[in-house]
Prior knowledge:
This protein is mainly α.
Amino acid sequence: MKPTVTLSPTPLPTVRVYDRTRDEFAMAALTGLLAANVDYDRQPEQAAKRAYTLADAMLKQREAS
């Protein structure tokens, strides 16, 4: 007999396209920052902050184009 799976009726949170794009840019920037052997082990918050700073710059340039 197969187990029954019950899904929660709670809707998923809405994510704005701008926020999603910003997050995707930040993920790409973070990957590059970590690959560059910058020492973020002691302060990972700095890596995240820098990634979002770069993401914001990418979005600004995208709007200007």
